[in-house]
Design goal:
The protein is an alpha+beta fold. It contains seven helices and 19 strands.
Length: 315
């Protein structure tokens, strides 16, 4: 009986050892206790170039380039001013990636997590030296068990030279999977209202006029203007953006409409507009080489107003 018990104990021990070895070899990557603490270790201040191949346009390589303290966005040899807020979002997101868990070690799983050919490829450089390259894949949302509305987002990421796929916190794809238009500076006007002393409107057929501040009062060619209407109009100059570019537009020498925004020291900003059918193409001296289309925008009604717009309302 004692020999039988010993055999049973030995058999049980062998089985337990086998189970332990198997669990070490085949356990889920999500249970890996030795998962790395960081996927990247970068200082956003030292990054000088970011290259992005968007998931939906991988043949349209986008380069974010730093020269001195200035960043530009480039595609197919053409450079533009960059949307500084989009740039900061990308830098902050990519330089703070921390893996939550490993979800796969198998290359055949890349497609499932969209970290293969269907992912967004991102590379970051310091003075021409490649520091990290990764593929940003599918994002999702985990519903929290503690709240009806709470939860957290996640994104699958793979370093380009590795097969392992990780889940990281946040919606990385919304930060990096962007088009050239998304990353360009869309600023059209940036003139603080308090600096403005006058506005000159030059319209066709000599229908223009001048809105001018005299001491604390606004006037239009000797007539008093409604102060609240003037301030409402001028407030739009502080920070106006347009979202549709007109890069192929060839501007005639003479614009159909010109607005000069004037301060105490001279012209603060000039707006030019050319009309084609029902659409206007606009340019401001804030970005003198950039043309915007008014299509889909209300900017023409907001900017090109007649002098009656500022006159006091009749009782």
């Amino acid at each position: 009986m004692k020999k039988i018990n010993n055999k049973v104990l030995i058999l049980v021990l062998v089985v337990l050892v086998g189970v332990f070895i198997a669990s070490r070899l085949f356990r889920s990557p999500g249970l890996e206790s030795t998962i790395r603490k960081d996927l990247v270790s970068l200082d956003s201040a030292t990054i000088t170039e970011i290259r992005i191949s968007p998931a939906n346009q991988q043949d349209q390589l986008i380069k974010l380039m730093k020269s001195g303290k200035t960043w530009t966005v480039e595609q197919k040899g053409k450079k533009y001013n960059v949307d500084i807020y989009a740039l900061k979002d990308i830098l902050q997101t990519l330089c703070s990636i921390k893996p939550e868990r490993m979800v796969s070690r198998k290359k055949e799983k890349w497609q499932t997590f969209q970290v293969g050919e269907t992912g967004t490829y991102v590379s970051m450089y310091e003075d021409g030296d490649l520091k990290t390259s990764m593929v940003v894949g599918k994002s999702g949302f985990n519903q929290s068990n503690n709240s009806q509305y709470g939860g957290n987002g996640y994104t699958y990421v793979r370093l380009s030279d590795e097969e392992e796929v990780y889940s990281v916190s946040g919606f990385l794809s919304s930060s990096v999977n962007r088009s050239l238009t998304d990353l360009r500076d869309k600023s059209f006007l940036r003139v603080p209202k308090d600096l403005i002393q006058g506005v000159s409107f030059k319209y066709p057929s000599d229908s223009g006029y001048v809105l001018q501040k005299q001491d604390t009062l606004w006037q239009i060619q000797g007539a008093s203007a409604d102060r609240s209407k003037v301030e409402s109009y001028l407030s739009q100059f502080a920070n106006k953006k347009l979202t549709k570019f007109a890069d192929e537009f060839n501007a005639p020498l003479q614009a159909d409409a010109i607005i000069d925004i004037v301060g105490s020291g001279g012209t603060l900003c000039t707006i030019e507009g050319w009309k084609t059918g029902t659409t206007w193409t606009l340019r401001s001296s804030l970005q003198p080489g950039i043309f915007f289309s008014s299509e889909g925008s209300t900017i023409i009604k907001e900017l090109l107003v007649g002098k009656r717009h500022f006159l006091p309302s009749l009782p």
